Amino acid sequence: MTTSTDSGKRIVVAIDGFSSSGKSTMARRLAASVGYRYIDSGAMYRAVALYALEHGMATEGGELQREAIVASLPQIKIDFKPQPDGTQHTLLNGADVETEIRQLRVSQVVSPVAAIPQVRRALVSMQQALGRDNGIVMDGRDIGTTVFPDAELKIYVDASAQTRAMRRYNELRAKGDTSVQYDDILANVMERDRIDRTRAESPLRRADDAISLDNSEMTLEEQDAWLLSRFDEVTRKGEQ
Ligand code: DC
User: Fold this and answer.
1) What is the CA(12)–ligand 1 centre distance, in A?
2) How much distance in Å is there from the Cα of 43 to the middle of ligand 1?
3) Residues near ligand 1 with C-beta < 6 Å?
């Protein structure tokens, strides 16, 4: 497939949406097909949440020591390491934490951690630095509104909470986690939606100039084709 990336005009693509809306998959696949860097901003919030859990600053019950988390931000270094299969793993202070950050115990504390304004500010500036040279696809909650308000292409992905919970349930089961219950995941998805939507700093909302996509009924291939067309439209327009 040819895309207008061949022309050399590199843009920023911002993909926002609720948890488990499939936005990371679509972002990663677009980045691979157009030769851009993919950044999962949620993984960065998850890495901070994992650090807080491991250092006794967060409990699985959701209690947080906010001041201690903020004070430890300078000690938290987050990197991404490309893998031979084209994906990348999240590194927390040099350690590969890709598996740990996806566990339910991290999902249970990440939204309140991500609601701490100082955590957001620190991660937003890291994300902006990563996008300085364009040629990036970043997904999250506030990428089109706060991190890259000037992104050339913004997508807002939506799907019902039930569809999203079922996707996450299937993903965890496929990874061999037989202890997960669909109802627990649905409750977690709905609670995270609530926190993400209502927090004071950078709540999840559709940027005015974002294109909406409800992918509840779409296959991966349909989703990829849809996104690549939007990408081509924008990069082609830039060439005229
Ligand atoms: O996309 P995810 O489920 O991995 O995101 C994990 C959490 O991080 C989620 O509760 C919302 C938060 N998040 C955020 O507040 N801003 C972002 N840009 C990305 C994620």
Assistant:
1) 19
2) 7
3) 19, 41-42, 45-46, 110-111, 114, 140-143, 192, 196
Tokens matching residue 23 = 């936005």
What are the tens digits of pLDDT across the range 73-96? Answer: 999 999 999 888 878 899 999 999
Report the alpha-carbon distance of residue 166 to residue 132 in Å, rounded: 36
- Report whether 126 contacts 209 (CB < 8 A): no
**pLDDT given for residue 1 in this prediction:** 44
Q: Whose CA is nearest to atom 6 of ligand 1?
A: 42
Q: Whose CA is nearest to atom 20 of ligand 1?
A: 42
Checking if the pLDDT of 240 tops 90, the result is no
**pLDDT above 90 (res 236):** no
Query: Is the overall model pTM greater than 0.90, yes or no?
Result: no
Q: What is the enclosing helix (H) or strand (E) of 17?
A: strand 12-17
Beta-bridge partners for 78: 92
pLDDT value for 158: 87
Of 12, 11, 23, which is closest to residue 140 (Cα–Cα)? 23
Distance, CA 46 to ligand 1 centroid (Å)? 7
Q: Which atom of ligand 1 is nearest to the CA of 101?
A: 4
**Residue 157 CB contacts under 8 Å (≥ 6 apart), including other chains:** 15, 16, 17, 18, 21, 22, 23, 26, 213, 214, 215
